[in-house]
Protein backbone atom coordinates (compact mmCIF):
# COMPACT_ATOMS: atom_id res chain seq x y z
CA UNK A 1 0.00 0.00 0.00
CA UNK A 2 1.30 3.43 -0.87
CA UNK A 3 0.42 6.93 0.17
CA UNK A 4 -0.44 7.60 -3.45
CA UNK A 5 -2.90 4.66 -3.57
CA UNK A 6 -4.73 5.89 -0.48
CA UNK A 7 -4.89 9.43 -1.79
CA UNK A 8 -6.17 8.16 -5.14
CA UNK A 9 -9.06 6.29 -3.50
CA UNK A 10 -10.13 9.30 -1.47
CA UNK A 11 -9.72 11.89 -4.21
CA UNK A 12 -11.57 9.80 -6.75
CA UNK A 13 -14.55 9.23 -4.41
CA UNK A 14 -14.78 12.89 -3.39
CA UNK A 15 -14.44 14.06 -6.99
CA UNK A 16 -17.18 11.66 -8.10
CA UNK A 17 -19.51 12.78 -5.31
CA UNK A 18 -19.34 16.42 -6.41
CA UNK A 19 -19.29 15.69 -10.15
CA UNK A 20 -23.07 15.10 -10.02
CA UNK A 21 -23.60 18.80 -9.27
CA UNK A 22 -20.61 19.89 -11.38
CA UNK A 23 -18.86 21.46 -8.40
CA UNK A 24 -15.08 21.65 -8.89
CA UNK A 25 -12.95 20.05 -6.19
CA UNK A 26 -9.49 21.38 -5.40
CA UNK A 27 -6.95 18.97 -4.00
CA UNK A 28 -3.55 19.80 -2.54
CA UNK A 29 -1.04 21.23 -4.97
CA UNK A 30 -3.49 21.32 -7.87
CA UNK A 31 -4.63 24.92 -8.39
CA UNK A 32 -2.74 28.16 -7.85
CA UNK A 33 -5.94 30.19 -8.14
CA UNK A 34 -9.29 28.79 -7.05
CA UNK A 35 -12.08 28.45 -9.64
CA UNK A 36 -15.20 30.59 -9.46
CA UNK A 37 -17.63 29.92 -6.63
CA UNK A 38 -18.96 27.47 -5.60
CA UNK A 39 -16.13 25.02 -5.13
CA UNK A 40 -14.77 22.51 -2.63
CA UNK A 41 -11.30 22.16 -1.11
CA UNK A 42 -10.36 18.64 -0.02
CA UNK A 43 -7.25 18.27 2.12
CA UNK A 44 -5.79 14.84 2.89
CA UNK A 45 -3.02 14.54 5.46
CA UNK A 46 -1.30 11.49 6.87
CA UNK A 47 -0.72 11.65 10.60
CA UNK A 48 0.64 8.19 11.36
CA UNK A 49 2.23 5.90 8.81
CA UNK A 50 4.14 3.63 11.14
CA UNK A 51 1.63 1.12 12.45
CA UNK A 52 2.33 -2.29 10.93
CA UNK A 53 -0.18 -4.93 11.94
CA UNK A 54 1.06 -8.28 13.15
CA UNK A 55 -0.46 -10.75 10.73
CA UNK A 56 0.72 -14.33 10.14
CA UNK A 57 -0.72 -14.68 6.66
CA UNK A 58 -0.15 -11.25 5.20
CA UNK A 59 2.84 -9.75 6.95
CA UNK A 60 2.86 -6.66 4.75
CA UNK A 61 -0.56 -5.45 5.80
CA UNK A 62 -0.30 -2.08 7.44
CA UNK A 63 -2.47 0.75 8.63
CA UNK A 64 -2.21 4.31 7.52
CA UNK A 65 -3.92 6.91 9.64
CA UNK A 66 -4.83 10.32 8.37
CA UNK A 67 -7.20 13.24 8.31
CA UNK A 68 -9.64 14.41 5.64
CA UNK A 69 -10.92 17.96 5.66
CA UNK A 70 -13.54 19.12 3.18
CA UNK A 71 -14.31 22.83 3.00
CA UNK A 72 -17.23 23.94 0.83
CA UNK A 73 -17.19 27.51 -0.48
CA UNK A 74 -20.17 29.47 -1.80
CA UNK A 75 -21.04 33.09 -2.53
CA UNK A 76 -21.76 35.38 0.41
CA UNK A 77 -25.29 36.63 0.90
CA UNK A 78 -27.14 33.83 -0.87
CA UNK A 79 -28.39 31.81 2.09
CA UNK A 80 -27.25 28.54 3.57
CA UNK A 81 -28.96 26.16 1.15
CA UNK A 82 -26.06 25.56 -1.19
CA UNK A 83 -23.56 25.24 1.66
CA UNK A 84 -25.71 22.69 3.41
CA UNK A 85 -26.22 20.66 0.26
CA UNK A 86 -22.46 20.58 -0.31
CA UNK A 87 -21.90 19.66 3.34
CA UNK A 88 -24.35 16.76 3.00
CA UNK A 89 -22.49 15.54 -0.05
CA UNK A 90 -19.22 15.67 1.90
CA UNK A 91 -20.74 13.79 4.83
CA UNK A 92 -22.14 11.07 2.56
CA UNK A 93 -18.90 10.75 0.61
CA UNK A 94 -16.86 10.36 3.79
CA UNK A 95 -19.27 7.81 5.22
CA UNK A 96 -19.19 5.82 1.98
CA UNK A 97 -15.42 5.80 1.49
CA UNK A 98 -15.20 2.24 2.71
CA UNK A 99 -16.18 -0.26 0.04
CA UNK A 100 -15.80 -3.95 0.64
CA UNK A 101 -13.44 -5.58 -1.83
CA UNK A 102 -11.35 -2.53 -2.69
CA UNK A 103 -7.62 -3.23 -2.96
CA UNK A 104 -7.04 -0.30 -0.63
CA UNK A 105 -9.82 0.34 1.86
CA UNK A 106 -10.31 3.66 3.58
CA UNK A 107 -12.61 3.94 6.56
CA UNK A 108 -13.59 7.26 8.12
CA UNK A 109 -14.15 7.82 11.81
CA UNK A 110 -16.69 10.21 13.28
CA UNK A 111 -17.25 13.25 11.07
CA UNK A 112 -16.82 16.63 12.79
CA UNK A 113 -18.88 19.52 11.54
CA UNK A 114 -20.24 21.07 9.44
CA UNK A 115 -18.76 24.21 11.01
CA UNK A 116 -19.92 27.40 9.29
CA UNK A 117 -17.52 30.31 8.84
CA UNK A 118 -19.72 33.25 7.90
CA UNK A 119 -18.00 36.28 9.41
CA UNK A 120 -15.60 38.57 7.59
CA UNK A 121 -15.81 40.58 4.42
CA UNK A 122 -14.57 37.99 1.92
CA UNK A 123 -16.85 37.38 -1.07
CA UNK A 124 -17.29 33.78 0.05
CA UNK A 125 -18.62 31.86 3.06
CA UNK A 126 -17.81 28.26 3.87
CA UNK A 127 -18.57 25.17 5.89
CA UNK A 128 -15.90 22.69 6.94
CA UNK A 129 -16.24 19.01 7.77
CA UNK A 130 -13.45 16.69 8.79
CA UNK A 131 -12.80 13.15 9.92
CA UNK A 132 -9.92 10.90 10.82
CA UNK A 133 -9.43 7.88 8.55
CA UNK A 134 -7.69 4.54 8.60
CA UNK A 135 -6.53 3.00 5.34
CA UNK A 136 -5.42 -0.59 4.97
CA UNK A 137 -4.63 -3.02 2.18
CA UNK B 1 4.76 -5.92 49.71
CA UNK B 2 1.40 -5.92 47.98
CA UNK B 3 -0.44 -2.64 47.74
CA UNK B 4 -3.63 -2.16 49.67
CA UNK B 5 -6.70 -1.33 47.59
CA UNK B 6 -6.61 2.19 49.04
CA UNK B 7 -2.96 2.70 47.99
CA UNK B 8 -3.64 1.30 44.52
CA UNK B 9 -6.64 3.58 44.07
CA UNK B 10 -4.57 6.59 45.15
CA UNK B 11 -1.80 5.74 42.69
CA UNK B 12 -4.25 5.23 39.83
CA UNK B 13 -5.98 8.53 40.61
CA UNK B 14 -2.65 10.35 40.69
CA UNK B 15 -1.55 8.72 37.43
CA UNK B 16 -4.81 9.75 35.76
CA UNK B 17 -4.40 13.33 36.98
CA UNK B 18 -0.83 13.41 35.66
CA UNK B 19 -1.90 11.91 32.34
CA UNK B 20 -4.81 14.31 31.98
CA UNK B 21 -2.57 17.30 32.75
CA UNK B 22 -0.09 16.12 30.11
CA UNK B 23 -2.92 15.62 27.60
CA UNK B 24 -4.28 19.14 28.14
CA UNK B 25 -0.88 20.83 27.90
CA UNK B 26 0.04 18.65 24.91
CA UNK B 27 -3.14 19.80 23.15
CA UNK B 28 -2.34 23.45 23.89
CA UNK B 29 1.17 22.95 22.50
CA UNK B 30 -0.06 21.22 19.35
CA UNK B 31 -2.62 23.96 18.66
CA UNK B 32 0.03 26.61 19.17
CA UNK B 33 2.56 24.79 17.00
CA UNK B 34 0.00 24.24 14.23
CA UNK B 35 -1.42 27.78 14.17
CA UNK B 36 -0.58 29.74 11.03
CA UNK B 37 1.92 32.40 12.04
CA UNK B 38 1.85 35.92 10.76
CA UNK B 39 2.56 38.03 13.81
CA UNK B 40 2.44 35.07 16.22
CA UNK B 41 -0.65 36.34 18.01
CA UNK B 42 -2.87 33.35 17.20
CA UNK B 43 -0.18 30.86 18.20
CA UNK B 44 0.15 32.67 21.55
CA UNK B 45 -3.60 32.83 22.15
CA UNK B 46 -4.40 29.24 23.17
CA UNK B 47 -5.41 29.25 26.84
CA UNK B 48 -6.20 26.46 29.27
CA UNK B 49 -9.05 27.05 31.70
CA UNK B 50 -11.49 25.17 33.89
CA UNK B 51 -15.30 25.46 33.91
CA UNK B 52 -15.43 28.48 31.55
CA UNK B 53 -13.24 29.41 28.58
CA UNK B 54 -10.47 31.93 29.29
CA UNK B 55 -11.47 34.94 27.16
CA UNK B 56 -8.20 36.84 27.47
CA UNK B 57 -6.20 37.46 24.29
CA UNK B 58 -2.53 38.32 23.83
CA UNK B 59 -1.64 41.86 22.74
CA UNK B 60 -1.00 42.61 19.08
CA UNK B 61 2.60 42.21 18.05
CA UNK B 62 4.43 42.83 14.80
CA UNK B 63 2.79 44.00 11.61
CA UNK B 64 0.15 41.73 10.09
CA UNK B 65 0.33 40.69 6.45
CA UNK B 66 -1.79 42.66 4.00
CA UNK B 67 -2.95 42.39 0.43
CA UNK B 68 -1.93 45.20 -1.87
CA UNK B 69 -2.79 45.79 -5.49
CA UNK B 70 0.30 46.48 -7.56
CA UNK B 71 -0.16 47.03 -11.30
CA UNK B 72 -3.64 45.55 -11.04
CA UNK B 73 -2.38 42.34 -9.42
CA UNK B 74 -3.30 41.51 -5.83
CA UNK B 75 -0.17 40.49 -3.93
CA UNK B 76 0.38 39.50 -0.33
CA UNK B 77 2.75 41.76 1.55
CA UNK B 78 4.20 39.71 4.41
CA UNK B 79 4.05 41.09 7.93
CA UNK B 80 6.82 40.91 10.45
CA UNK B 81 6.64 37.84 12.61
CA UNK B 82 6.89 38.11 16.33
CA UNK B 83 10.38 36.99 17.36
CA UNK B 84 8.93 34.41 19.71
CA UNK B 85 5.53 32.82 20.27
CA UNK B 86 4.76 32.69 23.95
CA UNK B 87 2.46 30.00 25.36
CA UNK B 88 0.62 30.95 28.54
CA UNK B 89 0.94 28.05 30.99
CA UNK B 90 -1.96 27.16 33.29
CA UNK B 91 -0.93 28.28 36.75
CA UNK B 92 -3.12 25.96 38.84
CA UNK B 93 -3.12 22.19 39.09
CA UNK B 94 -4.83 20.29 36.29
CA UNK B 95 -6.83 17.38 37.63
CA UNK B 96 -9.19 14.99 35.93
CA UNK B 97 -12.44 16.53 37.10
CA UNK B 98 -14.85 19.14 35.81
CA UNK B 99 -14.85 20.63 32.33
CA UNK B 100 -11.61 21.89 30.83
CA UNK B 101 -11.14 24.20 27.87
CA UNK B 102 -8.25 24.83 25.53
CA UNK B 103 -9.50 27.87 23.64
CA UNK B 104 -8.54 30.91 21.64
CA UNK B 105 -10.75 33.98 21.83
CA UNK B 106 -9.25 35.94 18.96
CA UNK B 107 -12.02 37.05 16.60
CA UNK B 108 -10.31 35.43 13.62
CA UNK B 109 -9.46 32.13 15.35
CA UNK B 110 -12.44 30.24 13.91
CA UNK B 111 -11.67 31.39 10.38
CA UNK B 112 -8.01 30.47 10.76
CA UNK B 113 -9.03 27.05 12.05
CA UNK B 114 -11.62 26.09 9.46
CA UNK B 115 -10.79 28.08 6.31
CA UNK B 116 -7.85 26.59 4.41
CA UNK B 117 -7.98 29.75 2.29
CA UNK B 118 -6.81 31.69 5.31
CA UNK B 119 -3.30 30.74 4.25
CA UNK B 120 -3.82 31.19 0.55
CA UNK B 121 -6.42 29.07 -1.09
CA UNK B 122 -4.10 26.61 -2.79
CA UNK B 123 -4.97 24.09 -0.16
CA UNK B 124 -1.32 23.36 0.51
CA UNK B 125 0.70 23.87 3.63
CA UNK B 126 -0.96 23.60 6.98
CA UNK B 127 -4.53 24.18 5.76
CA UNK B 128 -6.00 21.41 7.91
CA UNK B 129 -3.86 22.10 11.00
CA UNK B 130 -6.79 22.47 13.39
CA UNK B 131 -8.84 19.45 12.32
CA UNK B 132 -5.71 17.27 12.41
CA UNK B 133 -5.32 18.14 16.10
CA UNK B 134 -9.07 17.89 16.75
CA UNK B 135 -9.51 14.50 15.11
CA UNK B 136 -6.51 13.03 16.94
CA UNK B 137 -7.58 14.00 20.46
CA UNK B 138 -8.91 10.54 21.31
CA UNK B 139 -5.70 8.84 20.20
CA UNK B 140 -3.54 11.38 22.00
CA UNK B 141 -5.52 10.86 25.17
CA UNK B 142 -5.29 7.06 24.93
CA UNK B 143 -1.55 7.21 24.30
CA UNK B 144 -0.76 9.64 27.12
CA UNK B 145 -3.08 8.12 29.71
CA UNK B 146 -1.91 4.63 28.80
CA UNK B 147 1.71 5.59 29.33
CA UNK B 148 0.93 7.03 32.77
CA UNK B 149 -1.22 4.11 33.88
CA UNK B 150 1.36 1.53 32.81
CA UNK B 151 3.71 3.09 35.33
CA UNK B 152 1.40 2.25 38.25
Low-confidence stretches of chain A: none
How much of the sequence lies in strands of chain B comes to 5-15%
Strand order of the largest sheet of chain B: 1-4
In the predicted model, the low-confidence regions of chain B spanning at least 5 consecutive residues are 120-125
Average predicted confidence as pLDDT of chain B? 82
For the record, the CATH class of chain A is Alpha Beta
Q: Judging from the principal axes of the Cα atoms, what is the shape of chain A?
A: elongated
Largest sheet composition of chain B? 2 strands, antiparallel
Furnish the topology, listing elements before pairings:
The complex is a heterodimer of chains A (137) and B (152).
Chain A: H1 3-19, E1 25-27, E2 39-52, E3 62-75, H2 81-95, E4 105-108, E5 112-117, E6 124-136
Parallel strand pairs in A: 1-2
Antiparallel strand pairs in A: 2-3, 3-6, 4-6, 5-6
Helix pairs in contact in A: 1-2
Chain B: H1 5-34, E1 47-50, E2 66-70, E3 73-77, E4 100-103, H2 109-114, H3 129-134, H4 137-150
Antiparallel strand pairs in B: 1-4, 2-3
Amino acid sequence: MSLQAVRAVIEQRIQTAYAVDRIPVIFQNSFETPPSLPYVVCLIDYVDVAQPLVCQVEPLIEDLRGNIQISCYAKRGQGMGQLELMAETAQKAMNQLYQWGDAVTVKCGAVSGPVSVLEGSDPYVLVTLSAPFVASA
Amino acid sequence: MAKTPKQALKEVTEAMDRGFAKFITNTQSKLSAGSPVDTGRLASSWMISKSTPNRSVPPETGIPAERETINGVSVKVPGTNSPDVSITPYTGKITMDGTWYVSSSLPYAQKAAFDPGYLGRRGGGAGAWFTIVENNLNRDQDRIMGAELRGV
